[in-house]
C-alpha cells in the first residue's frame, strides 16, 4: 500500500474513513476482519512438558528400566535410589537446557495498553488492542504509538524510531504526501509506526496496519519463528549418552544371558547383576557435573563483564568461528570526538579525548585561540547553537563527563567548549526562536536565533547538502561569493578527510531580517554563507587491537556489519587490525541485491569483508548464510530490530549499556561494558570449559572400568560381587562430583587461544578420552582395586569358588576396600588429569585450589560412609584398619605417576 503518496485529504478515502473517524459499528466489523491489534505469540510447549521430557531421554529410560528390575528382584531400596538419580538428572538437565523466552514479553511492554481515538466525531480512550485500520488516533508528547499510521495533522511533531531503526535521534514528521523514491518505508516522513514514541509536538494520524501486519509485529514474528537449535555441547552430550546407553544395554543383556544360561543363577540374582552392570555403565553424575561446571564458568564470566543467560552458550562461545560485530560502541568508545576543523584554506587539529571539554586548537602545530579567526569563532557558535545535546559535568572526582543526546552533536558542543565558548551564557544572549530538526531527507538541521535587531539562521548537515545550499563563503572575516570551482575543491577536501575514517559535518549561517517569519525549510535553508567543516571520529577502544589479534591467532574471523558509512568503517577496521589485506566494502543496497550464493562466494574469496549501511534484516540473513556453511556465529546487536538476528545466531550478544530490553531478552549473552574485548575473553573461557569438560569426562570414565570389571569377573568366575550398586552410586553421585567440578574450574592452558576453533564434527568423547579414561587409567584402577579385594578375601580365609552372603563381615570388608580403593585411585587421577600432555608439575599440582577442596570432599564422604553406623547399613561398608588404609592410599601415587609417565612418553615420541 503506497499510503505515503496521497495528500492528507485523500488518505481518508484511501482507508475508507472520514475526519470524524469510524462509527462504533464499523469499528467492530473491522475488528472481526483484521483481528485484535496485538502481538501474536507462537504457541509454546508448556513448561511442565519441557521438564517431563528429561524423564524419557535415552539415559533416563535406561535407568527407569534398571529401577523397575530392582523392584522386581526384591531390592526396593535400590529401585528408589535409581529413581532419585533420574530426578536429580532431570532437574539439572532442565536447568541447563531451558531458558525463559521473554523476548516477546519485552516487545509487548513497548506497546501501549490504551490509545486515544476519534470515533463518531468524538475523542475517546480505548484499549489499544481494539484499534483497526481507518481509526484516527490523537497523539501528544510522551505518547507511545499503538499502530502503523499515516500522519494527517502535525504541529512540531517528532518521534523516536529507535525501536525499529536503532537510531535514537528524534525524527520530524509531517503530513504532506511524498513520492517515496530513495527512501525506505520506515523512513517516510509522513508515516509513524507501532512501538515508537512521540518525543515532542502533537498530531493526528489514520491507522493503516494493526496486529501482525505492523512493522513492529514483523520483528516479533521473526524473533519467535527462529528455530531453537541444540548447542554443540548439547549435541555432544546426547551422542555420548546414546553411546553409553548402547554399551550398557549390550553388556547388561550379555551378563544376564551368561548368568541364566551358563551359570544357572536364579532369576532375581541375574536381574540384580544386570542392574548393577547397567548402573555401573551409566555416569550418573555427568549431567549435574556438566551443568555445575557451566554455571561456575558463567559466574566467573560475570566478573569479566559477560552475563551468560543460557548455560550451554558458555561452551558454544569456545566453538565460535566467526564474530559478526557492530562498530559503534563495541569496537569504538561511542564517544564521538572532533579531530579536525576546516575553514577556508586552513586545517586545524583539535586535541583531547571523549566528552571532557579540555583540549587545544593547533594550526600548523601552534596553539591558537578561537578569537584569532572570525570563521572559527562563527563555526563554534553555530556548532553550539544548532545543537540539542547537553554536556553533564561529573558530580565527583574520578567520574567522567557525560552527555544527553546524540553523540555527534555532543562532539560539536564539546569542541565549542574547548575553544572557550560558553553555550549557556551565549544562548541567553542570542536565544533560539525555532528549530528545523534534522531529517533523513533534508540531511540538515537549522536553528533560528534572535540577535539584537535581526535573526540568524545557523545550519549544520551533510557537507554536500550544505555546500549546495550555500552561495557565499566567509574568509578572513569577509563574505564573498562561493564559486562552483570552490565548491568542487571543498568536496575534494571532504573526500580526503572521509578517507581517514572521519565523519564530517558542514556548517553555514545567514542573517535574516527581524520581521522574517516564514520558517519553512525551503525558505530558511537557502543562500547560506559557508563557514567550514568539522571532522570527528569515534575512536577505537584501546584494548580492541589486542583482542582482534587474539582472534586472528585463534583462527576466528571477524566481520564488521555496521550502519555507518563504508569509508569510516574501513578506516576503523584498518586501525584495529580487522583488515590486514584486500578488503571489500559492501553497502546495504548491494547486500539486498546479492543472492545467497554471491554472498557465500564473497565471504570465501579470501579478502576481508565489511558490510556498511547495513540494516538488521541484513544481519539475520548473513548469520543464516554463515550457519548454512557450517560456521558457528556470534552476532552482536542492541536494538529491538536486532532481536531476530540475535536469536538466529549460535551466540546472540546484546549490549548491556546501549542495548534495548528486547535485544537483551533475545540474546544468549549480555556485555555489561559493550566491549568487543569482552567477547574475546568469553571465547577464551568457552574454549577452556570445553577442554575442562573433556578432562572431567576422562576423570568420570576412569572409574567406570573399575566399576564394570567386577561385574564381568563375577559373571565369568562366579566370585562374590566385589562392589555393590549403592557403593557405585555413592561414587558417581557423591565422591566424584566436587572433584569433577574442580577440574571444570581449572585455569586455561597456555595455548588455548593459539589453536583454531574445534571443528563442528569433533567429538567430545573422542578416541583419546576413551583410551586415556576407559582403557589406560580405568584398567590400572581396576587391577589395583581387584588386587585389594582378593587380598582381603584370601587374608580372611576365603577360597576360590566359595560363596559369601551379603551380610558376611568378610564380604563387607572386601567390598569396602574396593569402594575406598576406587576413591583413592580417583584422587591420583584428579591430580594428573589437570593436563593432557604437559606435566602437571609445570602448571603446579595444586594451582587450582578447587582440587584441594575436591580431595577433602572425597575423603569426608568416604570417612562418613565407613564410620557412621547408619550409613554403613545403607552402603554395606565397614571400617578399615591401618594396614588396609596404607594399602589403598598407595593407589594415589600409582595412578598419578602412571599417567605422568604416559604424558612423558607421548612428549618424547612427538
TrEMBL record:
What Pfam family does this protein match (any one)? E1-E2_ATPase
- Transmembrane segment boundaries: 54-72, 78-95, 240-263, 764-790, 810-830, 850-868, 874-898
Q: Which GO BP terms, alphabetically?
A: proton transmembrane transport
Source organism: Methanobacterium bryantii
User: Where in this chain does the entry annotate a coiled-coil region?
Assistant: none
Regarding the membrane, this protein is recorded as:
Multi-pass membrane protein
Q: What are the protein's GO molecular function terms?
A: ATP binding; ATP hydrolysis activity; ATPase-coupled monoatomic cation transmembrane transporter activity
- Localization: Cell membrane
Q: Per its record, how is this protein called by name?
A: ATPase
Q: What do the Gene Ontology cellular component annotations say?
A: plasma membrane
What's the main place this protein lives?
membrane
UniProt entry keywords in alphabetical sequence: ATP-binding, Cell membrane, Membrane, Nucleotide-binding, Translocase, Transmembrane, Transmembrane helix
Occurrences of domain Cation-transporting P-type ATPase N-terminal (ranges):
2-75
Q: PANTHER family, from UniProt?
A: CATION TRANSPORTING ATPASE, SODIUM/POTASSIUM-TRANSPORTING ATPASE SUBUNIT ALPHA
**UniProt cross-references to SMART domains, sorted A to Z:** Cation_ATPase_N
